[in-house]
Amino acid sequence: MSTNTLPKLIFVTGNKNKLLEVQAILEGVIDVDSHKVDLPELQGETQEIAKQKCKLASEILNGPCITEDTALCFNAMNGLPGPYIKWFQDSIGHVGINKMLDGFDDRSAYALCTFGYCEGPGHEPIIFEGKTHGKIVTARGPGVFGWDAIFQPDGFDKTFAELDKVTKNSISHRGKALDALKAYFKEKK
């Protein structure tokens, strides 16, 4: 008699909102727990940051893990602030981020999520990305989860913060990246 147990992964994050979203998206496919690890803030392109971060985390944890990097990229600014959006959000908030685009005709943007998965020390991380196109708008909805209140995905009249969780997870950059991760683990079975 065989038991069908789910693969277990450690998601390296201290962000409870991210953990809840990741658990909801991976439910029934991968069992996710979290562990906060203090990693250096790396600079560079999103995929390179994700690979280095995941490799470091797997060495610290001495086992398999997933890490995530999220970028918010303004088309008018050639992709900036990109992976540095967290620092902009913490420093100038929703209003300041909106002001960054004052004077530009283009308020279009895309949200980019890059997950790294590493089997453990000595292994090369595998990268999974998801992208959602939209635009930067005046904050609407709860302002409790990063920049969700100022990002309105294309085809919707609501911001990520205003959408119900199921809808958001089905169209979000994070959901798309995790769909690729799920497909990888299903193929691996």
TrEMBL record:
- Which InterPro entries does UniProt cross-reference here? ITPase, ITPase-like_fam, RdgB/HAM1
Which Gene Ontology BP annotations are present? deoxyribonucleoside triphosphate catabolic process; nucleotide metabolic process
Cofactor: binding details: Binds 1 divalent metal cation per subunit; can use either Mg(2+) or Mn(2+).
Q: Which Pfam families match?
A: Ham1p_like (PF01725)
Q: Which residues bind ITP?
A: 13-18, 53, 69-70, 145-148, 168, 173-174
Binding locations of Mg(2+): E41, D69
Example GO molecular function: nucleotide binding
Could you tell me what reaction this enzyme catalyses?
A: XTP + H2O = XMP + diphosphate + H(+); dITP + H2O = dIMP + diphosphate + H(+); ITP + H2O = IMP + diphosphate + H(+); N(6)-hydroxy-dATP + H2O = N(6)-hydroxy-dAMP + diphosphate + H(+)
Q: Which domain of life is it from?
A: Eukaryota
Task: Kindly state which keywords UniProt assigns to this record, in alphabetical order.
Answer: Cytoplasm, Hydrolase, Magnesium, Manganese, Metal-binding, Nucleotide metabolism, Nucleotide-binding, Nucleus
Q: What is its EC number?
A: 3.6.1.66
| Cofactor(s) needed | Mg(2+); Mn(2+)
The record ties this protein, via CDD domains, to: HAM1
Q: Key word Manganese present in the record? A: yes
Q: Which Gene3D superfamilies match?
A: 3.90.950.10
The UniProt entry's GO CC annotations, sorted and at most eight, read:
cytoplasm; nucleus
Q: Where is the protein localized?
A: Cytoplasm; Nucleus
Q: How does it assemble?
A: Homodimer.
Name the protein family.
Belongs to the HAM1 NTPase family.
**Described function:** Pyrophosphatase that hydrolyzes the non-canonical purine nucleotides inosine triphosphate (ITP), deoxyinosine triphosphate (dITP) as well as 2'-deoxy-N-6-hydroxylaminopurine triphosphate (dHAPTP) and xanthosine 5'-triphosphate (XTP) to their respective monophosphate derivatives. The enzyme does not distinguish between the deoxy- and ribose forms. Probably excludes non-canonical purines from RNA and DNA precursor pools, thus preventing their incorporation into RNA and DNA and avoiding chromosomal lesions. Pyrophosphatase that hydrolyzes non-canonical purine nucleotides such as inosine triphosphate (ITP), deoxyinosine triphosphate (dITP) or xanthosine 5'-triphosphate (XTP) to their respective monophosphate derivatives. The enzyme does not distinguish between the deoxy- and ribose forms. Probably excludes non-canonical purines from RNA and DNA precursor pools, thus preventing their incorporation into RNA and DNA and avoiding chromosomal lesions.
Name used for this protein in its record: Inosine triphosphate pyrophosphatase
